Amino acid sequence: MGKEQLEDIEIQLLLEGIFRYYGFDFRNYALASIKRRIWHAIHAEGLTSISGLQEKVLHSPECMERFLYKLSVNVTSMFRDPSFFLVFRNKVVPILRTYPFIRIWHAGCSTGEEVYSMAILLHEEGLYHRSRLYATDINEISLRTARAGIFSLELMQEYTQNYLLAGGKKSFSEYYTAAYENAIFPSYIKDNIIFSQHNLVTDNSFNEFNIILCRNVLIYFDKVLQKRVHNLFYDSLIMFGILGLGRQESVKFTTHEPDYEELEKGEKLYRRIC
Asked: Is 25 within 8 Å of 19 (Cβ atoms)?
């Protein structure tokens, strides 16, 4: 048996142990991606082997929380992929105006940058007062950051450019207060956001939604898990609801491909039609 095969067995044992003891199921995550994250966690803990990480994770909830953060954290930013938000503003907002109340699910919200982006967009379009944004993630550490609504001030220049490219209608600096190298977003932007822990792998739907956004999460799942999540989203969307995915994600070649129409080619915004 080669070294790589032994490593794969160790990974399987680690993930099985986490599932049985903590209930978090990473067993169907894409192997290449999870392997990189596992080794990042090993080095961060000052360990040298997957087996060593397994022992520490199973005996230390604090280590498990750190490990969970390593596994689930994704690169994100405000108004990431500005053209996506521009198309949302131009093609989805007119649809949302027809609803008396709007429910949006940000699945895998990470530290919340895209949730706040959507809140600002809806505020500018006069829809935020009748919207509720449900922002969920598996990782409580990320959710604590998201709830605070405090981000690094040095990122605001990049976010301002994204905001303008996304069709922003004001000066972006109006939406935050600068203090101690931080940008602090006000309560009126946070008021209609509910942050909560939710595991796409094991948890079920908890409401019906007009919009579901899950961008750059499915790329970390294998085909079995992707199918499970697509079923979950389909069951959670109202008829003619909108599904938004990441640049490298699609409903193509899934069992639900016939159930959607693409709103704008290339922007991964789909409308449920049956």
From this structure: yes
* Residue 211 phi, psi dihedral angles, 5° rounding: -135, 135
pLDDT the model gives residue 69: 83
Angle (nearest 5°) at CA 89 between 217 and 178: 75
3-state secondary structure of 106: strand
- The single-letter code of the amino acid at 177 is T
Could you report the per-residue pLDDT of 11-53, keeping only the tens digit for each? 999 999 999 998 888 898 888 889 999 999 999 999 999 999 9
| Domain spanning 82-150+187-272, CATH class | alpha beta
Strands 150-152 and 177-179, by their bridges, are unpaired
Enumerate the domain spans of the chain: 3-72, 82-150+187-272
Digit-coded pLDDT (tens) for 56-81:
999 999 999 899 888 876 678 999 99
| Contacting residues for 46 by C-beta, under 8 A, at least 6 apart | none
